[in-house]
Amino acid sequence: MNRIVISTGGGDAPGLNAVIYSVVKSSQARGWEVYGSRSGYRGLLELDELVRLTDEQVRDITPTGGTILGSTNKGNPFAMPVENLAGEIHLRDVSDRIMTNFNRMGFLCHIAVGGDGSLEIAHRFAVEKGMPVIGVPKTIDNDLEATQMTFGFDTAVSTATEAIDKLHSTAKSHDRVLIVEVMGRDSGWIALSSGISGGADIVLIPEIPFNVETICRKITDNELHGKHYAIIVVAEGACAEKSGRIHKKTDKSEIGRQELLLGGIGEWVAAKIRKNSGKDTRSMVLGHLQRGGSPTTFDRLLALRFGAAAVRMAENNQFDQMVSLVNGEMEAVPLADAIKQRKKVPLSSDKIMTAREIGICLGDY
């Protein structure tokens, strides 16, 4: 009997449970066993965190948000934070221990569900340690190369669009400028898609550095045409020309040091608009609302297809590969191709052209 292990790493996304369900059911159809590694690689590091996934455990989980296995973005086995007797935290490579447990359990392969960080670790296990790995692309940012779409993105866009829809009435009632900050560290897919769908006046994305004066001109133009309010959607990684990105929050790194995190661009833009135009301007951050909730029909179906395709790849010994959506079909692509760079919004894309042609300002001119 073949055994496979599945893990979910990095930030959570709607559809993770659907992948787990599909992997379990597809494996059972072949007479295989499936184990889940809790909190990324922790189950492979400590075997008591490894759980056998049965029908009972995955029943009815497809529409549920989050992941029954848990996730983490601070569990790199090649640089795991470990505290010594003096209370000092240092990084240690525990990858060999994971490989020992992987081999001891007799796993055929590891199905790693994650974004660029998680899949980069999986690729490293494949190349450096010989672990048979299959990647499944997960990120609400939709910024993974080699796949048309990642699951979680459609749900995140739907959540952001619904929020934008609700802001129109309050912005209009108070003649305000309302700013919605959405996720998107390096890519503006969520901001652009939700901004167009939600009827925003201005959309700011990392791919196009913006000018505050251009934004204020758009707001003034609204006033001249009898529209005394505006909706602005801004990706967290957007930046003004020559100003760089805004880092407002701090967090502890894996070795206990304070590190800067992106955040605050929405309030920064709001302050500039208040100063330059005098308009009553407020900002809000959607944050982790975009990661939560039940996956949309599109994301559920995509996640189920990814999971089943991953098991087919395991059956065919297609390792160090990632399941990819290519021209509407499931294909295997090299993991190296998927993680070599972030997928950004092309400036020549139809979405960019559509935004400009329907009157949305992108902050550049």
What does this structure look like?
With 365 residues, the chain is of the alpha/beta class. It folds into two domains: 3-151 and 295-339, 3-Layer(aba) Sandwich (Rossmann fold); 154-292, 3-Layer(aba) Sandwich (Rossmann fold). Helix content is 37%, strand content 21%. The protein contains twelve helices and 15 strands. The protein has helices spanning 16-28, 42-45, 55-58, 95-104, 116-129, 153-174, 189-197, 212-224, 265-277, 297-315, 335-339, 350-357, and strands at 3-8, 33-37, 50-52, 80-83, 89-92, 109-114, 133-137, 177-182, 202-204, 230-235, 247-252, 258-262, 281-285, 321-326, 329-334. A seven-stranded mixed β-sheet has the order 3-2-1-6-7-14-15, sandwiched between helices. Helix 8 packs across helix 9. The chain is elongated, with a radius of gyration of 22 Å. The termini are far apart. The mean pLDDT is 94.
